[in-house]
Amino acid sequence: MKADEKYGFTYLFANEPAMNHAKLSEQYIGKTFDEVMPAKEAKILHLNYKKAAMHKETMVFTDEVDLADGSKLIGESILTPVMDEEGIVKYVVSVTRDITVSLLEKNQLIESEQRARSIVDHNLDGVITLDMSGKIIDLNPAARMITGYSNQQFISAYISDYIYEEDDCHFQQVLSKTKSGIASETIDCRFVHQKGEVVDVHLKMLPIIINQKVSGIYAIIRDLSQLTKNAEIIANMSFYDQLTGLPNRRALLSGLDKHLETDTAKKSDTALLYIDLDRFKYINDSFGHLVGDEILKKVAERLCQFEYRDYSVYRQGGDEFILLLPNTSKKDANKFAQKILDSFKKSFYFDSSEYYITPSIGISLYPADGKDAESLIKAADEALFRVKEKGKAHFQFYQGRIDTIHRNVVELETHLRKALENEELTLYYQPQLELATNEIVSFEALLRWHSKEFGFISPAEFIPLAEDTGLILPIGQWVIDTACSQIKQWSEQFNREFRIAVNISPRQFQDQNLVDTIRHAINKYNIAPDLLEVEITEGTMQDTAAAIPILKKMKKLGIMVSVDDFGTGYSSLSYLKQFPIDVLKIDQSFVKDVMTNNKDAAITTTIIHLAKSLGMDVIAEGVESKEQAQFLLEADCAYVQGYYYYRPLPANEIENIMMNR
Ligand code: C2E
Ligand code: MG
Ligand code: MG
């Protein structure tokens, strides 16, 4: 670089590697840093050059350059000022070397040193570093703990000074063996503690070998008294829960299996109650784990206070507890579970705050539900799963294979497949009424499964699983076909037209053939398309781009489209505008609390207004009382459906109703 008096620099010459490093184009000569590179880099370079020129001294600096492949190149530049006879700096020559690799190696070295250091510092054993003469160079924290000496007191003393006299001879032998490069065996040895007591330790010595030469020794010591204590603690820990002091899952497994082998157990029933606290995560998340832990302790206490033969309480883990009631009938277990539920009606106090918690309880009985600990626990857990599913704060007995099947998609699939073949599926119809006149105007078709093997299974349980297995597709086809056939039959029978709505789940909606299936059924029974309604959920419409063309095809076909459970899912007002929707179905959760919850009342009225202003019909689901109906009437809701009017009924019962109206 050519330098001027004001410490300005311009390029004079750069060889090819330099041009690459600084990313210079061909016309660099005569240019300043600012003219060839970003301002920030130019400034740094200029500063370094200026320093070299001002101080008339060689300068070294490193910089990083981003390469085209995304990697970095680290360059070390040496700047040498070149002066004329009068000592004025005329040029600055820069020589840059690529030091990426050597820097990397240096960093790796530092890292590996730190790694080695970490093993020593955090080792639970005491590690004492010695030089070849046996002088102490370093102690890790554990060694300081065991011996009681600080680093200063110890360092530059000889280790043999701290070995109990009688052990010194043995110690010296081991030391000299280690010096020859062989790790010693572990020996028992006594250390003199700073306070004068003698500490029993296990001692092992390792040579520190650097470049094939022994250059030091690690003496590793382990406090034996602590070891015995630890062993006790560990044994205790493995069978007891630290937080509540209750026996844990391991204790349960081994204790229960032993108990089941006894004669008394064989002669009578044993009940296992699996308890899970409802929404406990909420307590942890909102009040912190400290509060969570305190409450768990109090729950444990409460579970232990019942007066009942010799029952035992275990903490299964987290917010789960297991109670074991030996010599207990189903009836007794039932009473006991009720007692537990009652006992939770009282709140839990902690830190002058009150917390309400409810438990859910699943119950299994020995020997009916399982012959060993594992299977009894599993059965109770499955019953518990059903309690949670049905709304928590409840208890339930294991129901045999059906519980397992609900959780076993593979098995369910085979049974559901058979259900379709064996005609175990039926459609029930729930009337939908015009609120102002109390006239039945339409129906919602709801699927029912009366399994020959397991009895009644609710759609809320099997439909999600049918979705997972894809079985919803043939089932859905059957539903559409059956509903269309019913429309035809009733319009002939009653000489009046009724619309029937069928539920379409998201998986069905994604099916390419859905519109064809519907068209086919409409043609097959020769019915007016607007007598068929499809209920889709908000979730179905999330993928706007995919949903719009399908809905348009449906509208072209002439069928009606309603949005089920409106307000519970992805409620975006924008989709309402974009989609060709005829009816909004206000979800039952809003209707349920319309009389008691202002927000639900507000949501309900808002949906009704919204539907009106968008030119859609609106129907309220789940109407169960006269008051709700009155509220909806005043809110100007046009249609209703719910237990207050009719439950979903089989076709023949609907026919009876229609004839007698
Ligand atoms: P959904 O479409 O929202 O159906 C309304 C549910 O509420 C039905 O439950 C119905 O029996 C119940 N219900 C009606 N009136 C009242 C009331 O006044 N109070 C209360 N508490 N409940 C009422 P169901 O029959 O158990 O069906 C549950 C869900 O299963 C349905 O919810 C629907 O999403 C799905 N589903 C039912 N049938 C089919 C079907 O054929 N295909 C598909 N894909 N899903 C179906
Ligand atoms: Mg529905
Ligand atoms: Mg609904």
TrEMBL record:
<feature type="domain" description="PAC">
    <location>
        <begin position="54"/>
        <end position="111"/>
    </location>
</feature>
<feature type="domain" description="PAS">
    <location>
        <begin position="112"/>
        <end position="182"/>
    </location>
</feature>
<dbReference type="InterPro" id="IPR001633">
    <property type="entry name" value="EAL_dom"/>
</dbReference>
<dbReference type="InterPro" id="IPR043128">
    <property type="entry name" value="Rev_trsase/Diguanyl_cyclase"/>
</dbReference>
<feature type="domain" description="GGDEF">
    <location>
        <begin position="268"/>
        <end position="400"/>
    </location>
</feature>
<dbReference type="Pfam" id="PF08448">
    <property type="entry name" value="PAS_4"/>
</dbReference>
<dbReference type="InterPro" id="IPR052155">
    <property type="entry name" value="Biofilm_reg_signaling"/>
</dbReference>
<dbReference type="InterPro" id="IPR000700">
    <property type="entry name" value="PAS-assoc_C"/>
</dbReference>
<dbReference type="InterPro" id="IPR001610">
    <property type="entry name" value="PAC"/>
</dbReference>
<dbReference type="InterPro" id="IPR035965">
    <property type="entry name" value="PAS-like_dom_sf"/>
</dbReference>
<dbReference type="InterPro" id="IPR013656">
    <property type="entry name" value="PAS_4"/>
</dbReference>
<dbReference type="InterPro" id="IPR035919">
    <property type="entry name" value="EAL_sf"/>
</dbReference>
<dbReference type="InterPro" id="IPR000014">
    <property type="entry name" value="PAS"/>
</dbReference>
<protein>
    <submittedName>
        <fullName>EAL domain-containing protein</fullName>
    </submittedName>
</protein>
<dbReference type="Pfam" id="PF13426">
    <property type="entry name" value="PAS_9"/>
</dbReference>
<dbReference type="Pfam" id="PF00990">
    <property type="entry name" value="GGDEF"/>
</dbReference>
<feature type="domain" description="EAL">
    <location>
        <begin position="409"/>
        <end position="661"/>
    </location>
</feature>
<dbReference type="InterPro" id="IPR029787">
    <property type="entry name" value="Nucleotide_cyclase"/>
</dbReference>
<dbReference type="InterPro" id="IPR000160">
    <property type="entry name" value="GGDEF_dom"/>
</dbReference>
<dbReference type="Pfam" id="PF00563">
    <property type="entry name" value="EAL"/>
</dbReference>
